[in-house]
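Thread: quick sanity check before group meeting

JM: Hey all, I'm pulling together slides for Thursday and realized we never actually wrote out the predicted structure for the chain we discussed last week. Dropping the sequence here so it's in one place. If anyone has concerns about the input, flag it before I start.
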Amino acid sequence: MFSTVINALKVKDIRHKIFFTLGILIVFRLGSYITVPGVNAHALQSISSSGLVGILNTFSGGGLTNYSIFAMGVSPYITAQIIVQLLQMDIVPKFVEWSKQGEVGRRKLNQATRWLTIVLAFAQSIGITAGFNYLSQMNLVETPNVHTFLTIGLILTAGTMLTTWLGDMITERGIGQGVSMIIFAGIIARTPTGIQQIYTEQFVNTPKSQWGRSFLYVGLILLAVLAIVIFVTWVQQASRKIPIQYTRRASGASDSSYLPLKVNVAGVIPVIFASSFISTPQTILMAFASSHSEDDWYNILTNVFNMQTTDGAILYTVLIVLFTFFYAFVQVNPEKLAENLQKQGSYIPGVWPGKKTQSYVSSLLIRLSVVGALFLGLVALIPLLASNIFGLDESIGLGGTSLLIVVGVAIQLFDQLEGLMMKREYIGFIRN
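JM (edit): ok, ran it. Output follows.
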């Protein structure tokens, strides 16, 4: 792993990509410390244990703690992506048409996603500002009026769009998938704070006579983290090799090869999607906290869309499962795969080309997605249930989600570095 990074830094083009990515992430981190004007960020300390704060901090790199211009992070953009992708499934004819137009259609869909991001970001920013202002013991907004709320909404929306643009720059010119890298950097940046919090709670604020229990507690957390990292790495690297044979091969070439499909085809995207999707209604509901906090419908919805409750944890897991199946078919399109194999003069042994190949790949994707969904659901659900049942800190509950994202993004990052290194070797070989 480290040798890959060292070798990559020796290559000029790859080194520029790495430094460009680091520069973008530094800008993102600096922005997370710029507090929105007219806001008393210290008021958030009274509700810092809220599950929503933890979720949004995951997408903003702790930006919500300071109520920074990046407080919303990339959550609205991810939610907009989900909605647009769902609308392409024979729901909106125009979106279906664009999805079949190649690069031109992709640009139109991206534009629609951007506009929807603006709408969601503005609605979420107004909701979260109004809700936290109502829930906080001190006034979050110094002068709560329509003009102030609109101004804060516009600033937070602009921050979301800037964060999205930074992610796009990483995707185009840097290393890794932009949005995932933004979330990855935010989680890593919050790690020292989490360690300090555990140390303060278990040792500074605990009598020496109870330090034995504290050491046991910290030891169990470390073992759990290590077990999750090993398990996630093992599953993420596992793949199912589909044998492929070719009807026409050059002399001396192998008659068969393999098409590798990862066991967890969707990667960590379903976890990111589910986290963002469950936070959107939660932030919008907060706008009604002052006027409808006693209503039954408000309490029911607040309970359902709260990952700190058992109902919310179950909904979160169900969303992960659904998005795992959905994104697996987005990543690997059986129809296009069967079509490409047929054009290349290749086939799967024992399977007829065309529709039969499409059906075979679809059934295989479903079986793989079952394993992937169980894996992602368990890793995300167990810490949440442990937090809800045993009354542990909410950061412990979200720890499973954070570890999934960190390990998954890190594996994708190193895979891309290895791919760039391999590509460079092939180019050098061809030129020679």
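AS: nice. Residues 121 and 157 are 5 Å apart (CA to CA). The first helix runs from residue 2 to 9.
JM: adding both to the slides.
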